[in-house]
């Protein structure tokens, strides 16, 4: 992500509107139409503004303990009709629970908790992660 880790910052990624526009541009450049957006951790700063503004352009959304969920209201989440799989590891007792508390306001959500997995649950329990993800993907139209 721009500005995280060793990647150089991108001026447009300073605001939520800029991060939304950045992700929109990435998806357009890749020619993606109605993708499923998987958003672990820090990518929530990009994915959540996009979801709230353009959720209708996504086939599905898979937040994995993303940051930034508390920046939006329950009412904002209620307006999103994108099918969502809220996924996290049961050993992620900080960010995952905060994200769940906020994201459970998405009307078309379901929850998958990976037993014995931490914040990076997809690394801790890759087989369980992929089973949950594939099950969700099969249910999408």
TrEMBL record:
<keyword id="KW-0963">Cytoplasm</keyword>
<protein>
    <submittedName>
        <fullName>ABHEA protein</fullName>
    </submittedName>
</protein>
<dbReference type="GO" id="GO:0005737">
    <property type="term" value="C:cytoplasm"/>
</dbReference>
<dbReference type="InterPro" id="IPR029058">
    <property type="entry name" value="AB_hydrolase_fold"/>
</dbReference>
